[in-house]
Design brief:
alpha/beta; 19% strand; eight-stranded parallel beta barrel
Length: 673
């Protein structure tokens, strides 16, 4: 039965309904159930409809049509090649991987998503070129530093070959990787960063093999080294020059742009290099101007302004007699991690199509105004190409709960503060919730101080803590029912802690280091309302190994809506869009190594194919990273065991058991098994 109440509420009569709460509504045991209405219909006839998970986690906002919710309440992967096909449930994928012996945590790469992003970027530029009548072409390159994993680079090269998609190398190792791939004949290898003579020699020699390897000059000194190496080899290089733009983007990455950015030359240095090359008879080798717009550019107007400035340099260099043919606008194409579609640290206010259209239109207009031939447009989009293709999936090991379903009776001999704490329940109502919050915390803190001084015993303290946790449960419920409660922000102080099987420092280093946000959501039970709020703690023994900022449908929150952990199956969480930088920047905090990695492709029948599997690091492997030899460690441990036998601490039979456990540990996964 539904009954309309005041203050935009409904009263619903149900039998034997268990207590649970969410951000927007709260239910109590018994026959009366109260629920705040939102913009969504939670009731149909006399049946309560489960709140859609996308209304909580914002999946429909950030999912990009790739991540969705199945009818069974699971997070699922949609096949971009077949958008009308049902999503493939991630828990089912994990279950099948587990049957193969591939356990969580696991980094899951989806080949179809990488393919879609590369196609979308190239198609966007092709359509913009056709629409505006631009008289040249687009050539994208992928910066290897964004994701250096072999499986990723190999697939980018294969997928990008029809588009003439190339690679950007910012170091000698990355150039070595680039030259080991059969790129299409018109693909570029753009060499950025600091380059010594060995780097330059390899880049120039690669021209003999047909590679379009462009050496981007970063300074006058580097230009001098290029001249020397060119003279030694007798081979003409393909050169570019990096111009430092004065335009500075807004947001987290503003220091990656402007005249205080690390790389590139100012106008004085630029002309010195041009004059030097002219004097050495090498000016005709200078074909590309590089002008980095910035990283994760959030505002499309910053793109327009930076491109306009880059074009001014390009046309002026052409007027100086530099035979430029390529305009490289660097990186900057952002990813909308939050789904907010606005200029912000973790969001952008434009689409890939708008980004391409702005660049093509701006470059075309500038060149026409200066009567300069349209250059080949080059961008170095990395984050936008690979971010969406990878996700980190892990299980929750246990939970530390900051509330209680009941409270003990107060002992008559308990300290009066225990009685005062218990009495708060008697006046805990919505109008007095702030008062009750203040009183409960005051009495609890005073009792803790008395316990430290020996005036309250352990059992009294235990009763007090349980009473306090029960009060927190009731306060959470009242606050959840009032969207405008002044206490809402303070609820993070009593959020549960879900202990999860991953290392923040290894798999999500940007979350720890620069407060990067990634969408996070449970992978199952999304047809049921989440009844708890939690922060996530990783498996390391570092207090920084936690996540306490989350993307939800109604904005950012200091805790994540989660479900009570089921007893009969694992509870999985997914962190999405981690393909950019996270696989490369991870460290070995507590010697947790790389997770298991799998690459899958989505089939037309709703299943998936396992394309590649990379086993996660064993303990032996991570020991070698920090200069421990597993063989030496085994020998040393064996010697310790022999000493224990001599001292009659262990028997020979126990030695065998202990030695076996040591060996098994060394060959095992670094994560919780």
């Amino acid at each position: 039965m539904l009954t309309k109440l005041d203050n935009n509420q409904l009263s619903v009569t149900l039998q034997n309904f268990d207590f649970f709460l969410t951000d927007r509504y709260v239910f109590f045991s018994g026959t009366q159930v109260f629920c705040r209405l939102s913009a969504h219909d939670w009731f149909k006839g006399s049946t309560m409809m489960s709140m859609q998970a996308k209304d909580v986690y914002g999946v429909s906002q950030w999912g990009r049509g790739l991540i969705d919710i199945t009818q069974q309440g699971d997070i699922g992967l949609r096949n971009p090649r077949m958008p009308d096909q049902a999503a493939v449930a991630l828990p089912a994928i994990l279950e099948e991987l587990n049957e193969r012996g591939i356990k969580s945590p696991v980094l899951l790469r989806v080949a179809a998503y990488l393919e879609q992003e590369i196609a979308r970027l190239n198609t966007a530029f092709a359509q913009a070129i056709t629409k505006t009548g631009y008289q040249s072409v687009y050539r994208g390159v992928f910066p290897i530093k964004v994701n250096q994993q072999a499986q990723v680079i190999d697939r980018i090269v294969d997928i990008g070959r029809p588009w003439g998609f190339g690679l950007e190398a910012g170091s000698k190792p990355e150039l070595v990787i680039a030259l080991a791939h059969r790129l299409s004949h018109d693909a570029l290898i753009v060499c950025n960063g600091v380059k010594d003579a060995e780097f330059l020699r390899l880049a120039i020699l690669s021209r003999k093999l047909g590679f379009n390897t462009v050496i981007v000059l970063e300074s006058p000194k580097e230009a001098e080294t290029v001249v020397e190496v060119t003279k030694q080899l007798g081979i003409e290089p393909l050169l570019g020059v990096r111009v430092k733009l004065t335009n500075q983007i807004s947001g987290k990455w503003e220091e990656s742009s402007g005249d205080r950015s690390t790389f590139g030359m100012n106008t004085d240095q630029l002309l010195r290099v041009v004059d030097m090359l002219r004097g050495k008879g090498l000016l005709h080798c200078l074909k590309l101007q590089h002008s980095h717009l910035g990283s994760q550019v959030s505002d499309v107007n910053d793109v327009r302004r930076a491109v306009t400035e880059a074009c001014r340099y390009y046309t002026e260099l052409c007027a100086e007699g530099v035979p430029l043919t390529h305009l490289d606008l660097g990186g900057g194409l952002g990813v909308d991690y939050t789904g907010e579609k606005r200029a912000g640290e973790n969001s952008i206010n434009y689409t890939v199509e708008e980004y391409a259209a702005n660049i093509v239109e701006t470059v075309g207009y500038a060149m026409d105004s200066a009567n300069v031939s349209h250059p080949t447009i080059v961008t170095e989009s990395g984050r936008a190409v690979v971010a969406t293709s990878s996700m980190l999936l892990f299980n929750v090991l246990e939970a530390t709960l900051y509330d209680a379903p009941d409270a003990p009776e107060v002992d008559p001999d308990d300290h009066h503060l225990v009685h005062d704490l218990a009495a708060v329940a008697g006046y805990l109502t919505t109008p007095r919730v702030q008062e009750c919050w203040n009183d409960a915390r005051f009495y609890r803190d005073e009792l803790r101080a008395l316990f430290r001084r020996g005036h309250v015993d352990l059992r009294q303290m235990a009763r007090a803590e349980r009473i306090y946790l029960r009060l927190m449960a009731r306060i959470k419920a009242l606050v959840a029912a009032e969207d405008t409660s002044a206490l809402a922000d303070q609820m993070a102080q009593v959020a549960d802690i879900y202990h999860c099987n991953f290392s923040l420092f290894q798999s999500l280093p940007d979350v720890w280091a620069i407060d990067q946000l990634h969408p996070i959501a449970p992978l199952q039970m999304l047809d049921q309302p989440p009844d708890r709020r939690a922060i996530l703690s990783d498996i390391t023994c570092d207090s920084d190994g936690r996540i306490d900022r989350f993307i939800l449908a109604d904005g950012l929150a200091p805790s994540l809506p989660v479900h009570d952990l089921p007893d009969d199956r694992p509870y999985y969480l997914g962190v999405f869009f981690v393909g950019a930088y996270q696989e490369t920047l991870g460290d070995l905090h507590n010697l947790f190594g790389d997770t298991n990695v799998v690459t899958i492709d989505l089939r037309s029948d709703g299943g998936f194919d396992l394309l590649h599997e990379q086993e996660g690091d064993t303990i032996a492997q991570v020991m070698t990273y920090v200069e421990f030899d597993p063989v030496d460690c085994i020998a040393a441990f064996r010697s310790i065991l022999e000493g224990a036998i001599s001292a009659k601490q262990v028997t020979p039979r126990e030695r065998k058991q202990i030695m076996s456990a040591y060996r098994e540990s060394i060959t095992g996964y670094t994560y919780y098994e």
